[in-house]
Amino acid sequence: MSLKRFTGWLLDLYLDPQNGLKLWFISAEDDSRVCFTQAFPVSFFASGENQRLRALWKRLDKQEGVIKLVRTQKRDVFLNDFVNVLQVDVESPARQTQIFHALEKDFTDLTWYNADLSVGTRYLARFGAFPLALCELQINENGQIHDIKVCNSRWDIFPAMPPLRVMEITPNCDPIRSKVRYLRVQCDRFQHEIVLDENGVFLKTLHDVLQSYNPDILVTDWGDSWLIPFLTAESEKRSIRLDLNRDTGRPVRWQKESTYFSYGHIVYRPEEAHLFGRCHVDRKSAMMWSDYSLAGTLEMARVTTLPIEKAARVSPGQGISAMQVITALQRDVLVPYQKRQVEAFKTGMELIQSDRGGMVYQPKVGLHMDVAQIDFISMYPAVIIKSNISPEEPLPDLLEPVNAELGLVPATLKPLYDKRVAIKLKTREYPLNHPQRAMLKERANALKWLLVVCFGFLGYKNARFGRIEAHEAVTKGGRELLLRAKEVAEEEGFEVLHMYVDALWIKKKGCNRPEHFRDLIIRINDHTGLAINLDGIYRWLAFLPSKTDSRIPIANRYFGVFQSGEIKLRGIESRRRDTPAWIAGVQKEMIRILAQAKTPSELEQGLCDAFKFYNQALYMLKNGEVDLHELVINGKVSYALDTYKATTPSVRAARQMEVAGMTIKPGQRVRFLYTSGEPDVFAWDLSTSPDPSWLDLAKYIELLAKAGATVLAPFGIEPKLMLEWSQRGGIQLPLASALCYFSDD
User: Fold this and answer.
1) What is the pLDDT of residues 349-372, one digit of tens each?
2) Which among 699, 673, 703, 700 has a CA at the least distance from the CA of 685?
3) How far apart are CA 443 and CA 230, in angstroms?
4) Which numeric CATH code is attached to 166-215+217-287?
5) Would you give the DSSP letter of residue 225?
6) Are the beta carbons of 557 and 570 closer than 8 angstroms?
7) Which long-range contacts (CB under 8 A, 24 or more apart) does 116-119 make?
8) pTM greater than 0.85
9) Does 358-571 carry CATH code 3.90.1600.10?
């Protein structure tokens, strides 16, 4: 058999019923896009009583698609021992799925392993290939892969990237609110506006554009909910060809909508359109797009092995789960199909002592100058690695591990943690406005979210390798680290203003430059054994109190400006998804005006300028100069509508949509306006347009006043006074009181 060599980047991988797998590559030699096939037999396992395993053997013996049955022993991490299993080797992943689902119904008493693993995860564990991996292949004359060698690593800081072709297709307006007149199509070579004519010529035009440019990634707005359903329906109705897939023998694959519970929230995922041979990313459905955009999505796919389309849409938790499965497969450890372990019994006192969460030291409310924020780099993942916390490992004594060899979970996290630290260090080598810096920050953000959720997954009841006692050991170690850091800071003469889980806010008279904190950071690193980092030095920082009681500080509600000019906001209105975009913009602009001040005297003038801007915004609102779409509230319903006894504005808007024939699912976002009289809300996604005179102006003035008061409260302006000013005017506000907050005392 003659073989030829091929070098290229892996773009897409999916099941092929006839050949096992189809794999699409971007050629490194001539920039072509090529598809190959590969046989890919897989195995799954069952354990249980010998009699039942014999019955399973008889059932599978001579079953079509089963190529081998063997009794063997494998390791189960939750049993800390080997278990007797029946290994079932099947000719392809598609066939394995069919066989397993038939067996699961009849053998409910058996424990199954490696039964529901994604093909991408299995493929990486066996061959080391991942999305955008540079590979050398040996191909036979039928286009079948005989051998594959991966030339780079998931952990490369600057990986060799393929010349990706990215095309954006977006409607000219929100298709729910208005009739779409044309599509904007743009890429690095051209930009078109394709008018949606009555004769369907736009389909031919779009088909020709797709054929000529042949994109690898389609980036859309409303692609899942409107664009692709519209295009496929029009193509079928008019019998005009439109190849959205690069693999033209496949139709668009639709993944059903779903609702699930995650970290205390009900999450709704709409129906998704997936392509074959190229990738579709809908920015409106991409879960973390606002945090890390396309560069972060590609990084997420690279390290987790999730397909690019899936990496854009799912939570980082699914990425961590896939990575843990890869480690298990590479260690020849069984991956449970349904975890059956439960939390060990604890007395009430043991529960109180163990389940205490992260350390929080309430902040000193008010305005502070020259405050340094230092934080442990990915503290919880670092604790997991340092203390070797894993479900199969003995729990550490505070921070000291019992065993030196890393368990399954820390072994999964260590290269991820090391890569994020390395990327963050590289980021600092570029100027603030450098494009490489922005790309590195997006990649680091993607890795950050993976590291954030890894801790939660240790205690998640459905996580394959979760164990609540391990989860509690991590928070215990985190509390110890923060207390050690606080002790060192106070020994060095610093005042600790605030501590929150993995960070400290400190100040000391005369300390306002990075070198003033260098010795402290070295001492904390030595004292804790983990890396702590100077996140930045604030020119000024405002810690905010509770909205309901000004005497009570809120741990994660503050805003300030670093010496670099970068603004940091946490827990305020402009960070909330349910704040109207215009009000969020007013608040951000007020803070931006204040952030220009570099001295107390400049800040006093900035305070006057910020209040002047607020007054201008208030005038615009009262005079109807704000577009209605900028005042839309982005609410959410968490449960089925018929289960609500006391309704919220979101629920009332959702019921309007339900009356209009729309289906609202738990976790779904609902957009609405506040209106005067009855009803007091108007669902924004109804086919009718609201009259501006319906707007509940008093409600929006109240929302604006609260957002403005958040900014001005640290300067001595009471929120109630701000609301009274906004509603009536003609009262005196104490705008010249800022200087008293800058005394060294």
Assistant:
1) 666 666 677 889 999 999 999 999
2) 673
3) 33
4) 3.30.420.10
5) I
6) yes
7) 116/337, 117/325, 117/329, 117/335, 118/306, 118/322, 119/13, 119/14, 119/15, 119/21, 119/40, 119/93
8) yes
9) yes
